[in-house]
Every structure is written in structure tokens, then in C-alpha cells.
Specification:
Strand content: 5-15%
Number of strands: 12
Low-confidence stretches: 361-370
Oligomer: single chain
Radius of gyration: 39 Å
Helix content: 40-55%
Shape: flat
Largest sheet: 4 strands, mixed
Number of helices: 22
Mean pLDDT: 81
Strand order of the largest sheet: 9-12-11-10
Distance between the termini: 106 Å
Length: 582
């Protein structure tokens, strides 16, 4: 109802736009638009097998490609398409290949399952096909039960970098990016001075500033007046270098340098490569303090986390060298001209990782990480990571293993994962973490064993003396004829120090001063005697007295020390000399 009590009018027929169909009628072409609106088509007609089977698979595939289907990334649909092709190709080679999903049997599915590789790729095919087949209502019940059988997790193949490998990776990435950062910021200062009119017209810096201005506005070199030869001479004089391709990179990152920056973002923050490639330009705010340090707000996106969990934010403060936000500040400075040029040509694109290609109009970058915009590129691809590692002679691509190393060994916390995923997928299977855990486990077992072997007080504590107990030097004996140290029925002849280890002994407040003084004397002996001699003769008694002190508490123990009598000192002196054992 409206505010005046009238029923709201429906919009005119045809005024509400309808979404285009995902599976077009009369065809087997499925269209998938990702979260950015980019389109990819999958043609099931090119697959082998019966047409009804391909249409059924196209139907469940198309259902996942809708807005509510759950697939918001082209990478997900590409992986599913790969699994479908593997499944249909295998089915077509079977003698009992079904014409449609109604003919799929449990036996067929089990044979397909056994035919898959045992590694992560094979398990990925099984899980993707199982999730699709479960969606179709015509799959028989017996086949559904077989499909529903648990598919175990593959043992992770990738491991974290060793400490030396990780240090070399970090140093290499910093070296490559810092070289680019210094080049871009130095030329940026020249460009700013030229635009402000601070340079003398015609001088070498002025000529350089003129060329840089054209490069910043167009992404390429301008055409100087005169012949081609004079143009080349003019630009060489302005740039100071013979290589014009190098001059074009004075204000932009190369793909190699952008990969180094992405590697640093992985190392510093534990980001996924797709997250880095899709990272929006961070926004700054002041921290509110007197110094006004910048706080960068990063909006992170990870489409494969599931609906409602695609996005999260992080705040990183830049308060100086080695601060969490310093790398973000430098990344913004290094990409400022590329981002400004991209914003002018394509204002709808808001990305941090923008770099300039060295050739005009190369082939499109994979849809998962963006596409080419003239000479500009958005994002970094896994292939770039592999080539970067090869060029720098590193062990492998910096991204997947670098992220594992950062989150497991450096940050020691989940990176856009749940704690359970972090523990089960990253921490527990990591060989390096297992090796480190051996020392911790061994130390823990050693501590437990030492604790088990540590002598503890066996005597019973009483608030006052029990009637009938026999006094000794260190405690009262409740049953002198049944000692654990001598044969039953004979009087105990063990040392008075062992009374503390006997369950027949009783300790009451009258013993506290003497035992506290004995403990004090033993600690003094430990500082002057040979450690081996002290350990063999006095350590267990000292440990039992430590246990007694812990039970009584510091206040009671200190009070007992203050009330030690001369008689107590004399008895302890005789006890330590062994006079009672003769």
C-alpha cells in the first residue's frame, strides 16, 4: 500500500527489462556472465555423444550459470566445462554409453570414477561432475547413491618454500619492484616540474618532461615535428637512451615488474593471486592522530568462497618504513599513471594492478584476471608468475607456494579462509610445519617425561599432629612398622629425607619452619656443589620441598622461614651432614 492508502500501481507491461536466457532455445550454447558482466560461451554441441545427453548436461550447467546458480567466476565455469568434456568424451568411448542421463547406471559411474587419475585433477573432475549430476531429476536412484559416495581429499602436492627459498623470493621481488618504483617516481617528479613550468624550455629535462607528458596522457610516444630521423634524434636527446621501448616504460610497470609487486602482496599479506588481480584501488583515510598517518582500506574479493562471503575489508596503516601499509602506498605510486590513463579510457574499471604491455594489442589475458585495454593490462596471471620465476631463476611461481608460506609460517593465521580450512588444507599437510612440530612435540614429551619423573611430596598434610604418630626430623610417622622402604613388619630404617616420599608421613604446621629452612639450605648447596653430585644426592629432596611450598603457598612459606628456631637449624645441620644416617 502507498502512503495515502492506495494500492501501488504495477509497472506497464514490457517496462521491466528481462535477463537474457542462459541456455538459448534450439541451441546447446550456454552463456555465463561473471560478476563484472563479462561473457563466456560454452557450446555443448561440439562435444561427442548423443544430443539428449548433451542437452541434459547443458541444462544443469546453465542452471549454475544463472544469477542464483552460485557461479560468479569464469574460472569456476571453465573448470566445470573441463570436467564435462572429460566425462562426455569417456562416455562416448564406452560400449554401453547412455543416450541420456536416464540411462546412467551406478556401474558406469564407478567405472568412470576408477578411470580418473589419483591426483588432485582426478578428484576435481569427480567432484565437479557429481555436483552437476545430482542437480538433474532424471538421474536414476541407484546412480545417485553411487554419485553420493564420499570422494576423499587429495593429498596436497604443493608445499611451502624453505626458509632460504622464501628469503630469496622476497629479496628478488623487492629488488625488481624497487627498481621500477624508483624509475617511475623519479620520472614523475620531472613530469610534475614540467607541468608546473619549473623547467627552462628547450633544455634536456624540459624535453624529457614534454615527452613524459605525452606518454602519461596517451600511453605512447608523440610524433615530433619534422622527419622521422629528427624525431628519433629529439627523443634520444630527451630520454638519454637509445631504446625507445625502455622509454615507454618510464611511467609504467612492465609485466615482469607487476608480477614482482603481486609477489610482494602475496608475501606481505597472504593474498590469493585472483584477489590481487581483482583488487580495487585502495581508499585512504586519516588515522585521526596528530601525525595524520594514512590508513588504506582494501576491499578484497574472493568469488569462490560462496554467496554472502565474497567480500571482506582490511585496514593497513602507513606510518613509516616497514609499516603494514607502506607497500600499498608504493604500489599506488608505481601504478598511478597507468591507472589514470585507464580511468580516462575506461572509467568503469577500478583496479590497482594495472601495467603497460611492451607490444600493441597482444592477445587477451584470461577472463579470470581481466582483459587487455589497448597497451594496458589489468591483473597478473599464473603464466606470468611461472615466467617471472624462470627469468629470475627461482624454484617455482611465487604465488601458490608463497601464499602458503606466508599464511602458515609468517602470518600464522588464515588468509581469506576459515580457521578449519587453514588448519586442514594449509597447516597440517605442510611438511615444513611437520618438521618444526617434531621439535615441539619432542620438547613437550620431554617436559611431560621430566614432570612424571620429578619427585613429588607423598607425605600427607594435616592441620595438626595426629595422636599416636611418631615424630621424626622431617615429619611424623603414622605407621613405623609398615614402611614402603623396608620389609613389612620391621621398623623403618630409611633416611629421614625419605619421609617426604612416604605415604605414612604426616606434615603439620609444626614442621613448616624446619622444612622451609631445609629447602633454603639445599638451594644454597646447589650453587656451590658440583651439579652431578647435587642432583644425585639432594635434587629429589629439593623437588619434594618445592612441591610442599607450592601446596602451602608463598605467604605460609615465608612466615615459616621467619619462625625458624635454633633447634630447627641444629637438626637440619645434622641431617645435611648425614649424622642421622650413621
Amino acid at each position: 500500500m502507498s502512503g495515502r492508502g492506495r494500492r501501488a500501481a504495477l509497472p506497464p507491461t514490457g517496462s521491466v527489462p528481462t535477463r537474457p536466457p542462459v541456455l538459448h532455445a534450439g541451441t546447446l550454447v550456454v552463456e555465463h556472465r561473471d560478476g563484472d558482466g563479462k561473457l563466456v560461451r560454452y557450446d555443448f554441441a561440439v562435444l561427442p555423444g548423443a544430443k539428449p545427453l548433451k542437452r541434459s548436461l547443458a541444462e544443469v550447467f546453465a542452471a549454475r550459470c544463472t544469477r542464483s546458480g552460485g557461479w560468479t567466476s569464469h574460472k569456476t565455469s571453465e573448470q566445470a566445462w573441463w570436467a564435462v568434456r572429460q566425462f562426455v568424451t569417456w562416455l562416448a568411448a564406452q560400449d554401453d554409453a547412455p543416450k541420456d542421463l536416464e540411462g546412467l547406471t551406478a556401474s558406469t559411474w564407478k567405472r568412470w570414477r576408477l578411470s580418473r587419475p589419483s591426483g588432485p585433477g582426478g578428484r576435481a573432475q569427480l567432484k565437479l561432475m557429481a555436483s552437476l549430476l545430482r542437480e538433474h531429476p532424471r538421474v536414476p536412484l541407484a546412480a545417485r547413491e553411487a554419485i553420493a559416495e564420499r570422494i576423499g581429499k587429495a593429498k596436497p602436492v604443493e608445499q611451502s618454500f624453505s626458509q632460504a627459498e622464501f628469503a630469496r623470493l622476497t629479496a628478488t621481488a623487492r629488488r625488481v619492484f624497487r627498481t621500477a618504483y624508483l624509475r617511475i617516481t623519479q620520472n614523475a617528479r620531472t613530469l610534475v616540474a614540467w607541468r608546473r613550468g619549473e623547467l627552462d624550455e628547450g633544455c634536456q629535462p624540459w624535453l624529457l618532461g614534454e615527452e613524459l607528458d605525452h606518454l602519461a596522457r596517451h600511453g605512447d610516444l608523440g610524433q615530433a615535428p619534422g622527419s622521422a630521423a629528427s624525431t628519433i634524434r629529439r627523443r634520444r636527446a630527451a630520454s638519454g637512451v637509445d631504446n625507445m621501448r625502455q622509454f615507454r616504460q618510464r611511467l609504467f610497470l612492465t609485466g615482469h615488474e607487476a608480477t614482482a609487486l603481486a609477489a610482494l602482496l602475496t608475501v606481505e599479506y597472504g593474498f590469493n593471486l585472483s584477489t590481487i588481480s581483482r583488487l580495487r584501488v585502495p581508499r585512504a583515510s586519516s588515522d585521526g592522530g596528530e601525525d595524520g598517518h594514512l590508513v588504506w582500506r582494501l576491499e578484497l574479493e574472493k568469488p569462490r568462497r560462496g554467496a554472502g562471503r565474497h567480500f571482506e575489508t582490511r585496514n593497513l596503516a602507513d606510518f613509516g618504513a616497514n609499516s603494514p601499509g607502506r607497500l600499498i602506498t608504493q604500489a599506488l605510486e608505481a601504478t598511478q599513471f597507468a591507472r589514470a590513463l585507464l580511468a580516462e579510457q575506461h572509467p568503469e574499471v577500478d583496479r590497482l594492478m594495472v601495467w603497460r604491455a611492451t607490444v600493441q594489442n597482444p592477445s587477451r589475458v584470461t577472463a579470470s584476471y581481466g582483459e587487455a585495454f589497448g597497451v594496458l593490462r589489468v591483473g597478473v596471471t599464473p603464466v606470468m608468475g611461472k615466467r617471472w620465476a624462470q627469468a629470475e631463476k627461482l624454484a617455482s611461481s611465487p604465488f601458490r607456494r608463497g601464499r602458503r608460506t606466508s599464511n602458515v609460517h609468517l602470518r600464522r593465521e588464515p588468509g581469506q579462509n576459515t580457521q578449519d580450512t587453514h588448519d586442514s588444507i594449509y597447516v597440517l599437510p605442510d611438511v615444513r610445519m611437520q618438521e618444526q612440530a617434531i621439535e615441539s612435540i619432542a620438547a613437550g614429551v620431554g617436559d611431560a617425561l621430566a614432570s612424571a619423573r620429578r619427585a613429588v611430596l607423598s607425605a600427607r598434610l594435616r592441620p595438626e599432629a595426629d595422636a599416636g604418630d611418631v615424630p621424626t626430623v622431617t615429619a611424623d610417622c603414622h605407621d613405623i612398622d609398615h614402611s614402603q622402604f623396608t620389609a613389612p613388619g620391621t621398623a623403618c630404617t630409611a633416611s629421614f629425607l625419605l619421609c617426604l616420599a612416604c605415604t605414612n608421613a604426616r606434615i603439620h604446621p609444626g614442621h613448616h619452619p624446619r622444612l622451609a629452612h631445609l629447602h633454603h639450605c639445599l638451594e644454597q648447596l646447589s650453587s656451590v656443589l658440583d651439579p652431578a653430585r647435587w642432583a644425585s644426592r639432594w635434587q629429589q629432596t629439593h623437588e619434594r620441598l618445592e612441591d610442599l611450598r607450592a601446596r602451602l603457598g608463598t605467604a605460609v612459606w615465608d612466615q615459616a622461614l621467619d619462625t625458624v628456631t635454633e633447634a630447627d637449624r641444629d637438626l637440619v645441620d645434622l641431617l645435611l651432614k648425614g649424622d642421622f644416617d650413621r
